[in-house]
Structure formats: structure tokens, C-alpha cells
Amino acid sequence: MKANRQVRLKSRPTGIPKADNFEIASTPVPEIAEKQFLVRNEYLSVEPAMRGWVSAVANYSTPVGVGEVMRAFSAGKVVASRHPNYREGDAVMGMLGWQEYAISDGSTITRKVHESDLPLSLSLGVLGLNASPHISVCWTSGNRGRATPLQSQLRQARSAQRLDRLRS
């Protein structure tokens, strides 16, 4: 049976979180139910907001409980599905936590990742949740044929990936 490696909050940090505040646990990969799917996370995010999430002080979201999987955006691929809108092989990004495998019913998914010509990791960065409004503004702010810095970065990422494909 496959193991699901998880990073859990072991204790509340005082000040900046340290490695001692977390533990790595191994649990069986959960079975999916009807209208659920299993994601194997390939990339895990580290966000400034996480410092607030591990604090006992309430903020805009409920603190991560001691012993719980660390809350985080993750990107990965669906490896099993009993959900009509998600198929094996679909790339997704959402609040799936710091763990190798996560079950979802779709409510934790921010978006399906359709950009197959770009690295999946970009869905947590320049193509991720925080960048989405900025991409829209950059691309519609009257550049009249000139590329914005963001457009240039996206083109460079696509070119780098194409070069990698040619080399292999």
C-alpha cells in the first residue's frame, strides 16, 4: 500500500516558525468516495500568509490545528477519480496542503491547469491565484504592441521549456 507523506503542525511557533514546529507523518493513501478524486501533489507552496495560519491568534482564516496537515496551495495531477468533472491526468491547483496525496470533491480546487506547454509549478507563481488579477490588468492596460514584463517572463518560460524538450 502506498504511503501519504504529510507535513503537520506539531506545535504553535513563537515568532517565526521553525522546523521544530512541524513533523513529517506517514499515513495510508486514502480511498476516494463517489464524487471525489485523488491528487498526487507535485509542487507545494510557501506563502507569507502561512505565518498567520499557524498562529493561535484568529485572523481572516481559522488557524491550522496542532496535528493537522499544514494548509497550503499545491499543484498536482489527478491519479484516481470518481468525480464527473475531474479525470485521471488532469492537472489542478488548489488548497490541498503539504502532503503527497490529497482527496478533493472539487471545493478545494482553485482551477484546472490547462497550460500544458508550461511547467505546472507556474500555477503556484505567475499563473497562480495571486497573479491572476495582475495578468488581466497587464494584458489589457493599453500596451499597444509592447510586451509587459509579465508577458516577457511568460514567453521566456515557454521558450525555456521548448528548449528543454529539444535537448531531450
Describe this structure in words.
This protein is an alpha+beta fold and 168 residues long. It folds into two domains: 3-130, Quinone Oxidoreductase, Chain A, domain 1 (Alpha-Beta Complex); 131-168. The protein has helices at residues 50-53, 132-140, 149-167; strands at residues 3-9, 22-28, 37-44, 73-81, 91-95, 101-104, 109-112. The strands form two sheets. Strands 6-3-4-5-7 form a five-stranded antiparallel β-sheet, with no helix packed on it. Strands 1-2 form a two-stranded antiparallel sheet. It is globular, with a radius of gyration of 18 Å. The two termini are 33 Å apart. The model is unreliable at 132-141 (pLDDT under 50).
**Strand and helix order:** EEEHEEEEHH
Number of strands: 7
Gyration radius (Cα, Å) is: 18 Å
Shape: globular
Kindly estimate the percentage of residues that lie in beta strands according to DSSP. 25-35%
CATH class of the largest domain: Alpha Beta
Strand order of the largest sheet: 6-3-4-5-7
| Most strands sheet | 5 strands, antiparallel
Would you identify the regions where 5 or more consecutive residues have pLDDT less than 50? Answer: 132-141
- Structural class, please? alpha+beta
Q: Give the CA-CA distance, first to last residue.
A: 33 Å
